[in-house]
Amino acid sequence: MRRVYIIGTGATAVGEHWDRSAASLAIEALNGALGTIPASRLGALYVASALSGSLHAQSQIGVLIATAAGIPGIEVVTVEAGGASGGVALRQAWMAVASGAVDLAAVVGVEKVTDVLDARREAALALATDADWEAIHGVTLTALWALLMRRYMHEYGYTADDFAPFPINAHANAVANPRAMYRFPINADKVRSAPMVSEPLGLLDCSTAADGAAAVIIASEGLARELCANPVRIAGSAVATDTLALHSRPDPLWFNAAAQTTTAALRSAHLAHSDVQVFDLTDPHGIAAALALESSGFAERGTAVALAREGAITPKGRLPLATGGGCKARGDTVGANGVYQIVELVAQLRGQAGAAQVNGARVALAQCMGGIGATVATHILTLD
Amino acid sequence: MDLAKHWRLRHARYRLEGQRNRLTGEVRFPPAPPRPGEAEDVWEPYVLSGRGRVYSFSVVRQPPEGFEDQPPYLVALVRLDEGPMVTAQLTDCDLDQAAIDMPVEMVTRRLRDLGPTGLIVYGYKFRPIVQR
Predict the structure, then answer these.
(1) Which partner from A121, A351, B53, B101 sits 20 to 30 angstroms from A252, CA to CA?
(2) B3-128: CATH number
(3) How close B61 gets to chain A, by Cα (Å)?
(4) A86 and A29 both lie in a single domain
């Protein structure tokens, strides 16, 4: 396998882009990532979108974007893996470049969710659950996370208030991110007094689905040296799955695909858990980040919420999370989240993350999740 | 319309019919096709008792399309007495009455209405077991 590098990143602001199409957002992100590299040099394009089929009645959205980018004819792979779409697309690009089949590839994550009303968006998001045995009962992804949060509180003796450090950290970090949707701090009182969305989850512990696109350019080692002064290596890459329905798992509070992919990605990078200095996870709610940290081996079971309370997840802590605002404050771009994670972690490794910079970060972990841990993609990024 | 999609699940939805493995006795729900390598008839139909306990629960206040007439409604993971866990709504239960480990039993209710040109989908929900 060849070494694989990220040589460019780009992203749009996350928000309500009423006047923009999915293609327009995707092209802005792709142009930002390409910089001076002509699009015609790309050997393949990987496009991640979770909801384009269900919300826009447009399949093959990858071809739509290739057409808009003026590169018809290019090999295109459109990836749908719910909230893991971005990470799964990156994995496909990584395999193509690592194998030698492709020298230069682009990964674009794009989501356009504000064209429909809330109920239709909730239904589209709930398609990531098992349609026959979960969604038909009216459960939403938010409700499933809420079920896990209540059980976690029951097992480990926490209150809902104990989860507040996750959204507080996300908002504090988003202040420094010009692309974030919510660039203002919040406090524990505000989190506590927010209206309930799905008990015990309140509004300020729930991400907001929003529009956005992010892109990264992936290159072989030779091209990376030629085209980029400060490439970031993708040192580990893994994707795994769990049962589609949450209720089919022996222990719903354990994400086996997170455990498997973290172990595999760290092993291929020849790194240990303790080497990772900055994280970006699928964190639409505090409980999601907590379970991901525990299942991935970065916290003992039942302790992630206590660690967050002690400040471990802030940029100065041992497990810095959501340095660009995470799903909560950057805005939840669903299938594009996995690519936004890479854009933000590359900025961390290049020392360009501003007020949310983790000092001296050289190893980063990106993990994105489709459904409730049904698909998990984990990548390790390093500086050579 | 989705008629066949719901019709073919009627035994599981209306009476919680799962499967039992003829060799091992394992009970599973929902029913599924035999896995690669398994004999075609190794899983036989098996109606579960419909009794279980609440593993966890929540309330849906921002419903998906098709459920707009229902909120707030309780949803739960229910651990059935035979072992499998299912996702379902709790019914005949006040929002503040639900609790982890609460004993519940299955009832057949309307799940959703697919509209004037569709059908009304019925299936299992769970209610607190009334002590007599």
Answers:
(1) A121
(2) 2.40.50.840
(3) 6
(4) yes
pLDDT of the residue at B115 = 78
Q: Which residues of A touch B73 (CB under 8 A)?
A: 138
Residues A302 and A378 occupy one common structural domain: yes
**N- to C-terminal Cα separation, chain A:** 17
Backbone angles phi, psi at A241, to 5 degrees: -130, 165
Boundaries of every domain in chain B: 3-128
Q: Are residues A181 and A273 in the same domain?
A: yes
Closest by Cα among A57, A46, A117 to A85? A46
pLDDT at A117: 85
CB contact under 8 A, B87 and A122: no
Taking CA atoms, what residue in A is nearest to B7?
A132
Say which residues have a Cβ less than 8 Å from residue A21's Cβ, sequence separation at least 6: A112
Nearest to A106 by CA among A88, A116, A94, A124: A94
Task: Centre a 10 Å sphere on the Cβ of residue B38 and count the other Cβ atoms it contains.
Answer: 12
Residues A11 and A99 in one domain: yes
Q: Name the DSSP letter for residue A338.
A: H
Q: How large is the average pLDDT for residues B73-98?
A: 97
| pLDDT for residue B122 | 94
Number of domains making up chain A: 2
Which stretches of chain A drop beneath a pLDDT of 50? Answer: none
**How far apart, in whole angstroms, are the C-alpha atoms of residue B15 and residue A207?**
37
Instruction: State phi, psi for B71 to the nearest 5 degrees.
Output: -65, 155
The boundaries of the domain holding residue A260 are 137-207+236-382
Query: Are both A95 and A160 inside the same structural domain?
Result: no
Cβ–Cβ below 8 Å for A200 and B58: yes
Tell me if A138 and B60 make a contact (CB, 8 A cut-off): yes
Coarse DSSP helix, strand, coil percentages of chain B, rounded to the nearest 5 percent: 10, 40, 50
Please name the helix (run of DSSP H) or strand (run of DSSP E) that holds residue A257, with its range, or none: helix A256-268
Of the candidates A174, A59, A52, A165, the one whose C-alpha atom is nearest the C-alpha of residue A112 is A52
pLDDT band of residue B119 (cuts 50, 70, 90) is: confident
Q: Which CATH number do you get for residue A294? A: 3.40.47.10
Name A128's Cβ contacts closer than 8 Å, sequence gap at least 6. Answer: A50, A82, A83, A141, A370, A371, A374
Query: Using CA of residue A321, residue A325, residue A329, residue A332, what is the dihedral sign?
Result: negative
Which of A37, A48, A78 shows the shortest CA–CA distance to A213?
A48
Q: In this structure, are strands A44-48 and A75-79 parallel, antiparallel, or unpaired?
A: parallel
The interface predicted TM-score of the complex, written ipTM, equals 0.96
Answer yes or no: is A161 within a domain: yes
pLDDT of amino acid B132: 61
Partner-chain contact A200 B75, CB within 8 Å: no
B112 vs A: CB within 8 A: yes
**Chain B residue at shortest CA distance from A142:** B60
